[in-house]
Specification:
With about 950 residues, this protein is of the alpha/beta class.
């Protein structure tokens, strides 16, 4: 964990070094800061060398010393950043710098900083004197790669699960046995992938030991690969097991064992299980020593990593993904283990707490067996079970029965690179069952300094890679996916969260205040307040805290919030989403190191001019606030990357007023680091449109109140944004035309396009957007069918059209729209026929027809949509619905897919806020489905 502190401090050191020239303090401080960076690199190397020996108490103490030194360095560098001059316009800087150099702050930088550097050097010398930094002492512990170290991991799961009945694994077991025993004579590899504790090893062991399987092979072997890969030991183990399984002699000790193994298996039909593979290169190395003959041999690989599971096999048919148990299986397994003395029957007075405990286990066989095994030894009293439910986190740390859960999760954590560890631990900040949006999480990681640009990728793109890696390792759950396969929101399992919370608090990564009247420790870097109380604002100063999150506001008034903000000095991340604020707290502008500020879903109306002091700000999130105008001096925030300011009004969904943007003054061209800008209201300052052309790094742009005469400047500016991925343009009214024809070089990688307003014709350049996956056309009122242009888009997955076409027929031609999954047609008043030719839209999954008053029947050819999963119908005419109820036998398959007469979703304000926002920004179908699911209800689940 100390390596996370070092990584953050190194990032900060690089930032300070790059700023010294601007501050004109190069000669005075560069040497000292470079020394700090060198010491950080040395300590980082020390920690890498120590990996695997962290369990010893002496080593733990030394790691703590290193972490505290890294924190001291971070504190020093942040103080330097806090006292340094702010960034100004070039013509202003010289005067400001001159004033600064003659100020008292100059004395701080030239005298106190060197003194503090000297103190840090003394601490490092003390560690070096213990022979730690350069020559780490192992204190007699085995090396991480030794058999002793790996045996701990290898023994964990079988100890607790090996004798248990397999619940919910009947189907995967049957499929595994079938693939092992049937098929051709080629050697086949089968992979079983799933999270830690999901039962991979137990399932495969059950198959491996079955008589039906064992009787088909000449030789069998089971080897545990683990993180501590040693090809020699693995080969020796295979030779021994294969030899014993056939009662033949193993090769001579002095021979080349890899060649011996290869020769030995050449003509045999063998079955090999490679349990717990962590690295693709390990698989490649093992594969090289195994013959690839035609004897019908089979290999099963178990792994937590999806990329390994896919890499090992020749077809996805041979990848078995183990998800956690469904409720009936989980409940059955819990009963079997918890009530062994009562034939698996739960006393009525315990049912409530038993259900809560099983839900908390979220279907993990390992967790269910561990927890139920502990409960089987406790008194069957509701209060006793409540105590366990409420203290599962601490029990996992201390109780021998539950510490096995920690031991299973620990290897997955240790296997992560340090940058990924910090991202993984970040989930400990959020309350249980909290779903976190992808975009927010990525912006937070960037603000924290966990990721930087790499290999031509922006920090945000690197952060998304990190998130996908955590999901691919089955450590993070993607609980919502976007239509194009990107994760939309995610979380971690409850017991994984307990593990992360424990790990984070041990290492001062985060301090969580779950109850009122609790307070954080002295060195804590991040503060997560789950249940605040007014007395919190009376606590001591939080000088070490860099990030603060508040998740409950029931007892806090604006005055309490302001008092709390006075306690911070080095804060970099401040999330005040949903806070009871009507006025922008003036204390915020004094937090000059702030990089991330969210006031989303507050009632603030005005952003003060003094926000210019937040020169380090990267994200300003004012979505769903009452802010309608930003101060002119916001253009001084040169590091700003994400400016999100708009308000949605779900009640007026069918008007352009459903979304309120923000006015900005000229000067926007100075914000050249912007990645996201949404939504800007273009009114009297129309020169802004031309200035937008300077924002060449934009990935997302949203503009409101456009006029026809803006077309030329708008197209020229957009052409400069060659990195643009999302473009959202709205005219000033439904009747005003958007002129977008003058764009011969549109952004080549555009993925999402939303055009709201009248169009004389669909711009021809749209057909060149090969990366476009979603397009929304609202109130276009095209006289010519848009499908002739849209069908040329090879990767289009979602097409949303609202009052976009005035004609009477839509014809989806054969073999077009090959990848389209979602089609939404709404308010086509003249439409009386939809034709789907054979082979059109072969992948379509969701079709919505909404308020098409002259459409009297289902689309012709709808029966060819073999992948259709849902047909959503809203406000369709009576004749249409009557015909639907009389559907002939050829179309009877549609009836289970149809949903109609649901509460009118456009005006239903009971939707969650994020669903309302998605509805207003193009994801109509997703919102309908979310709402429909909430209305239809579901059986008890772990979600």
């Amino acid at each position: 964990m100390a390596e996370i502190a070092i990584t953050v401090a190194l990032f900060l050191a690089e930032e300070v070094l790059s700023s010294l020239d601007i501050w004109n303090l190069r000669k005075n401080l560069r040497g000292g800061v470079e020394n700090l960076k060198t010491w950080l690199n040395t300590m980082q190397a020390y920690l890498t060398d120590m990996e695997g020996n962290e369990g010893n108490a002496v080593q733990q103490d030394r790691i703590k010393q290193v972490r505290n030194v890294a924190y001291d360095i971070e504190d020093l560098l942040d103080e330097l950043m806090r006292h340094a001059p702010r960034r100004y316009h070039r013509h202003e800087f010289r005067n400001k710098a001159r004033e600064f150099l003659h100020s008292s702050l100059h004395g701080f930088l030239l005298h106190e900083i060197p003194s503090k550097i000297k103190e840090i050097k003394t601490k490092i010398d003390e560690i070096a004197a213990l022979d730690l930094v350069r020559e780490p002492t192992r204190v007699g512990l085995p090396d991480e790669g030794s058999s002793s170290a790996s045996s701990v991991e290898r023994q964990v799961t079988p100890q607790i699960l090996e004798d248990d009945e397999i619940f919910g694994f009947d189907e995967p077991k049957e499929k595994l046995v079938r693939q092992l025993t049937e098929g051709d004579s080629r050697r086949l590899t089968i992979s079983v992938v799933g999270p830690a504790g999901s039962g991979k090893t137990v399932l495969v062991k059950n198959v491996y030991e079955s008589k039906k399987v064992q009787g088909l092979f000449d030789s069998l072997a089971w080897v545990h690969v683990s993180r501590f890969f040693d090809i020699k030991k693995l080969v020796s183990s295979m030779l021994k097991q294969f030899g014993e399984s056939t009662r033949e002699r193993t090769p001579n000790e002095g021979a080349d064992k890899e060649s011996e193994l290869r020769n030995y298996l050449q003509q045999k039909r063998y079955f090999l299980v490679l349990d717990d593979i962590w690295d693709i290169n390990d698989w490649k190395r093992i594969q090289n020593v195994l013959p690839n003959g035609c004897s019908g041999s089979r290999i099963i690989v178990t792994t937590q990593k999806r990329d390994i599971a896919s890499f090992c096999v020749e077809s996805v048919d041979y990848v078995h993904t183990l998800n956690f148990l469904e409720w009936p299986e989980a409940w059955g397994l819990f009963h079997k283990k918890a009530f062994q003395t009562s034939n698996g029957k739960c006393p009525p007075e315990l049912v409530d707490w038993a259900e809560k405990i099983v839900i908390k286990c979220e279907g993990s066989p390992l967790a269910i067996v561990a927890v139920s095994g502990l409960l089987s030894k406790k008194q069957q009293l509701p209060n006793e079970w409540k105590k366990l439910h409420d203290s599962l986190g601490s029990e996992i740390q201390t109780h021998s029965n539950l510490s096995i859960i920690r031991k299973v999760l620990l290897p997955s954590y240790k296997d992560l690179p340090s940058s990924h560890k910090s991202c993984f631990l970040y989930f400990s900040i959020f309350p249980q069952d909290k779903s976190i949006k992808r975009g927010k999480l990525i912006r937070l990681w960037v603000a924290e300094g966990f990721v930087t640009k790499k290999g031509g990728k922006t920090p945000e793109e690197v952060a998304e890679d990190h998130l996908n890696e955590l999901i691919g390792r089955n450590l993070v759950l993607a609980n919502n996916w976007d239509f194009d396969g990107r994760v939309s929101s995610c979380r971690v399992q409850n017991l994984v969260l307990e593990f992360l919370v424990s790990k984070s608090e041990d290492e001062h990564f985060v301090s969580i205040l779950p109850e009122p009247n609790t307070s954080p420790g002295d060195k804590v870097r991040r503060l997560s307040i789950h249940n605040a109380c007014p007395t919190l604002s009376q606590s001591k100063s939080f000088t070490s805290v860099r990030s603060t999150f508040l998740f409950t506001w029931k007892t806090l008034s604006p005055s309490h919030i302001k008092s709390l903000l006075d306690k911070f000095t080095l804060l970099k991340v401040l999330d005040l989403e949903d806070a009871p604020l009507d006025i922008f707290p003036e204390q915020i502008v004094n937090l000059t190191l702030l990089r991330y500020l969210s006031l989303r879903h507050t009632n603030i109306k005005v952003v003060p001019k003094s926000i210019k002091k937040l020169s380090n700000l990267e994200t300003l999130d004012l979505k769903q606030t009452c802010v309608t105008e930003l101060p002119e001096r916001i253009s001084l925030l040169r590091r700003l990357r994400h400016l999100l300011v708009y308000r949605s009004d779900v009640k007026n969904y069918d008007t352009l007023d459903s979304v309120q943007g923000v006015r900005m003054s000229p000067g926007i061209a100075d914000l050249t680091n912007l990645q996201k800008l949404s939504l800007v209201k273009v009114d009297e300052h129309r020169k802004i449109i031309k200035q937008l052309g300077a924002l060449t790094q934009l990935r997302k742009l949203g503009l409101l109140d456009l006029k026809r005469e803006d077309g030329k400047d708008l197209c020229e500016s957009i052409q400069n944004m060659q990195n643009l991925l999302t473009l959202d343009l709205s005219s000033i009214s439904k009747e005003v035309c958007l002129d977008l024809d003058g764009m011969p070089r549109p952004p080549p990688h555009l993925q999402r396009l939303y055009l709201k307003g009248h169009l004389q014709k669909l711009p021809g350049w749209i057909s060149s957007l090969n990366d476009l996956v979603r397009i929304g056309l609202q109130w276009s009122k095209l006289q010519h069918t848009p499908l002739e242009v849209l069908e040329q888009l090879p990767n289009l997955m979602e097409l949303q059209m609202i009052d976009a076409f005035t004609g009477d027929q839509l014809v989806f031609e054969a073999e077009r729209f090959k990848k389209l999954k979602i089609l939404h047609i709404q308010q086509f008043d003249g439409l009386n026929m939809v034709v789907i030719q054979q082979g059109a839209m072969p992948e379509l999954q969701k079709l919505t027809l909404w308020k098409c008053v002259n459409l009297k029947m289902l689309p012709l050819g709808i029966d060819s949509l073999t992948h259709l999963e849902e047909l959503l119908l809203y406000d369709m005419p009576n004749e249409f619905m009557s015909r639907l109820r009389k559907t002939n036998e050829d179309q009877s398959f549609l009836m289970p897919l149809v949903k109609w007469n649901l509460p009118y979703p456009a005006v239903n304000t009971t939707w969650p806020a994020e669903v309302q926002e998605r509805w207003l920004h193009g994801s109509t179908v997703e919102c309908e489905l979310d709402f429909a699911a909430s209305q239809l209800g579901s059986a008890k689940s772990f979600k």
